[in-house]
Design brief:
The protein is an alpha+beta fold. It has two domains: 313 residues, no CATH class; 233 residues, Heat Shock Protein 90. It contains twelve helices and 19 strands. The strands form five sheets. Strands 1, 2, 6, 7, 8 and 9 form a six-stranded antiparallel beta sheet that branches. Helix 10 packs parallel to helix 11.
Length: 585
């Protein structure tokens, strides 16, 4: 059994550890799937906001100098700057103040851009487990797909911008250049190639070259709108138009709070996501952690709106993954796996233990058969060879042969009876009657054998016991085995007495057989009625028996409708108790 136990412990480790790892990976995969689903929602929101801004700026760049602008809710005012410096605007004071503070647009804080580049989204935090990668430079599948989508989007926007550009011009890093053979040549071409993305320093050299060529060709030159001033409240955009020697400037002012409100309405309110997604805008990177159970993403807008940041806090969206069913199956697997192993272990242990008991039973039966047969053979040979001189000795030998024959008969009958019970072949003929006389008869038969063993056999029967239903042969065999069991296990008792009692207990008739021996070890009380069970080790046992007596008593008693129980008595000894229901009950 110890070997089987260690084998099952090893098997449990080999099964449960991979199962636990698998379940852990499933949970991590579900959490990652859920997080990536929410990230995709956030990316889609940010892309739509970027598209709204790009469409607005593209429409403004495509508008000619003389075309009347379409007023947007976030544009405070459109204005023009005359050659003499005067300003045409309905918000002349605001525009004048902003232009007076206008400086060359900053190239951007390098540390700020290193923390998060313009046009990028950052997954700040969520309350679900995340899968860590050893290589921080490696892209996840989602990041790779997102990078491809962004590249395709940039190419698509470039083609759309080409269609909106004036005839004969193309868009090149935000600058409309005329296709005059090689638009940028010589030192300017080298400068173009050397400037890193987004090539903001290309603006001056390319614009200067184009201006010269446009003036020489007496063609109109219109630059794209550029961000000239940004502060927490306003964005100032301006562009220059040149026709020959005439130079004019145009622009517009955006109020950032109105712009963010407009983006909120266009993207979230119109799509019905306002109850699930909370958007916050700022002129700098956000700080702080999300609430438990939410997903937080931060996005920095692309140039020229890189001074604008947006943060979305997304509530868990239903249907991003079928987590409930998978969690239930995982928990069920974690419960079923150990229970299955435990059930398998118990089944194997019971079979092995039962097999060991059968093996011990064969050894015990062989021993029990050999002992009376040896005595019978020895005494019969002595009588056959006239080796017994006195009649008293011959009578003693005859009694011994008879007793051993009866013992051998009972042993064989017990084995056959148990075999019939196991095959469900034992026929029981129940009749209603009093069990007192049957008990008296059996006790009288067993008294000489008990006296030979040094025991006193007593019978106590209450008067007027109600009749019960029983089979006489089965009841006799039960009493024989009960008394024989007491004789075997109480040999070491000081009080060598066995009491057989029939009494009425409430609405039942109880037959009990009690000895005054050492009793049954408490840890074995629950197993004494199991077939082939013996509380002593088969190799070191001192008590005769096959382990079938109490199992046979239980089987026969239950066939007669009686219940069987055994207990250790407080003053010593073991009591076997059979409870019969009266026939009329």
């Amino acid at each position: 059994m110890n070997r089987i136990r260690w084998v099952f412990i090893l098997l449990a480790v080999l099964v449960l550890v991979p199962t636990a790892v698998l379940v852990k990976r499933v949970f991590e995969g579900l959490a990652l799937e859920d997080s990536l689903g929410h990230r995709a929602v956030a990316e889609r929101i940010f892309d739509e906001m970027e598209r709204q801004l790009a469409d607005f700026l593209r429409a403004e760049n495509a508008r000619t100098v003389s075309t009347k602008p379409v007023k947007r809710p976030f544009v405070v005012t459109y204005f023009g700057v005359n050659p003499d410096g005067s300003i045409d605007s309905d918000e002349q004071r605001l525009v004048s103040g902003l232009i007076s503070r206008k400086t060359k647009p900053p190239k951007g804080d390098r540390a700020d851009k290193k923390a998060q580049a313009p046009g990028s989204t950052r997954w700040l935090q969520d309350n679900r487990p995340q899968v860590e990668t050893k290589d921080e430079q490696a892209l996840s599948p989602y990041d790779a797909i997102n990078a491809l989508n962004q590249t395709a989007a940039r190419q698509r926007k470039a083609k759309e911008a080409q269609k909106l550009a004036p005839s004969g011009y193309r868009e090149q890093d935000g600058i409309f250049a005329r296709s005059l053979g090689t638009s940028i040549e010589g030192e300017d071409a080298e400068a173009f190639a050397a400037v890193p993305e987004p090539r903001t320093e290309l603006l001056e050299s390319a614009s200067r070259l184009l201006k010269q060529k446009m003036i020489q060709a007496n063609e109109a030159f219109v630059s794209p709108y550029l961000l000239e001033l940004e502060d927490p409240n306003h964005l100032l955009f301006m562009r220059t138009s040149i026709q020959g020697t005439e130079r004019r400037r145009q622009g517009f002012v955006i109020r950032t709070t109105l712009l963010t409100n407009w983006l909120q309405q266009q993207v979230l309110d119109d799509s019905g996501l306002q109850s699930q997604v909370e958007a916050r805008f700022s002129s700098q990177a956000f700080e702080g952690a999300p609430e438990l159970g939410t997903y937080l993403f931060q996005h920095r807008f692309s140039e020229p709106f890189e001074s604008l940041w947006v943060q979305t806090e997304i509530q868990p969206l239903p249907g991003t993954s079928n987590q409930t069913a998978v969690y239930a199956m995982a928990v069920l697997l974690l419960i079923i796996a150990p229970l299955g192993l435990l059930a398998l272990y118990r089944m194997v242990a019971i079979l092995v233990e039962y097999s060991e008991r059968r093996s011990n039973f064969v050894a015990a039966v062989s021993h029990e058969l050999k002992t009376p047969l040896t005595a019978i053979r020895m005494y019969s040979e002595m009588l056959r060879d006239d080796m017994v001189e006195s009649d008293a000795k011959r009578q003693e030998y005859y009694r011994t042969i008879n007793d051993e024959s009866e013992r051998l008969t009972r042993l064989v009958n017990n084995v056959l009876e148990f075999s019939r019970l196991e095959r469900n072949d034992r026929d029981i003929s129940l009749v209603a009657g009093a069990i007192g006389p049957v008990v008296q008869d059996v006790v009288e038969i067993m008294k000489p054998h008990a006296a030979t063993e040094g025991f006193e056999l007593q019978v106590e029967t209450d008067a007027d016991l109600p009749p019960v239903r029983f089979d006489r042969d089965a009841l006799s065999q039960v009493i024989f085995n009960g008394i024989d069991n007491a004789l075997k296990y109480a040999k070491s008792a000081e009080n060598r007495r066995i009491v057989v009692r029939c009494r009425k207990d409430h609405d039942q008739v109880v037959l009990s057989m009690r000895d005054y021996g050492p009793g049954i070890p408490p840890q074995h009380l629950s197993k004494v009625f199991e077939p082939f069970f013996r509380s002593e080790n088969e190799l070191t046992r001192r008590t005769k028996g096959t382990g079938l007596g109490l199992a046979l008593i239980k089987g026969l008693a239950e066939r007669m409708g009686a219940s069987v129980a055994g207990k250790n008595c407080e003053d010593g000894g073991f009591e076997l108790r059979l409870a019969f229901t009266p026939a009329g009950a």
